[in-house]
Prior knowledge:
globular; 10 strands; alpha/beta; 13 helices; about 40% helix; six-stranded mixed β-sheet
Amino acid sequence: MDTVALAVTDGMLHFELSVAYEIFGSAPDAVTTPWYRLSVCGTAPVRVGRFLLEPDHGLDRLRYADTVIVPGWADVDVDPPADLVDAVRAAHEAGARVASLCTGAFVLAAAGLLDGKRATTHWAHTDLLTDRHPRVSVDPDVLYVDNGSVLTSAGKAAALDLCLHLVRLDHGSSVANTVARRLVVPPHRDGGQAQFVTTPLPARTDHPLAALFPWALERLDHPLSVEDLARQARMSSRNLGRHFRSVAGTTPLRWLLTQRIRRAQELLETTDDTVDAIASATGMGTAATLRRHFNRAVGVPPDSYRRTFRSPAGRL
């Protein structure tokens, strides 16, 4: 897998493109084994954000690469160019390993490379990818998916995770760790996109539950039930459930659990409180209960989350 081609065209995201160029473009000083031969393939010139890029070769050169990287696609509401889709498909048919970064998955999906396969993209666009390409099994909860000859990554920084994964496959963990040290990033991150997805309250203030949300948030340390919420909202439990699905897109108990997890994340980031204390403060009851729900929702245990996201203020 020594030749790597970046497939670029107007509308690519420069961060993901730069990540791939940085990792595959030059080996760290400590690496003595032969490195990748990188080329940039696309129509010339290519507009990437506010930058103008001069490709080395045309898109037809992709079929001669061992690995093809498709960076993020800026406007997912617009179909990717047909010549890019055709070139990526032809490269895969010629035997290339094809990897997408962030919304580059929309290019792979349009090429039919993800049909019947598990894939991911930025969490903000997983629903759209599912709707547009129903034959793709979209997983919104992972940083990247490796199907062998086809790989996809989640948003932004997950492009680093996938690129380091490719280096690890090709050169081993020691070399991948060396590349990660040069980039000042962890060589491997546990968990998934759920760690990085915020859970804001609904923006509307004119819905029937507008006063209920802040009331419940102030009482997350209490063992609130659906009946408690319904009583406060002055409606039946059935009406409460209907309004919750309409406004928040979920059930009352699921919403409560999400808010408890979010509060636990904040406390893990900003305080020295023990897991037991945080369990009590978020209405989870016991540390075991918190760990079970937290690990299921976020993808990592509370202690691992704290080590990753601990804010400077929390260390004081």
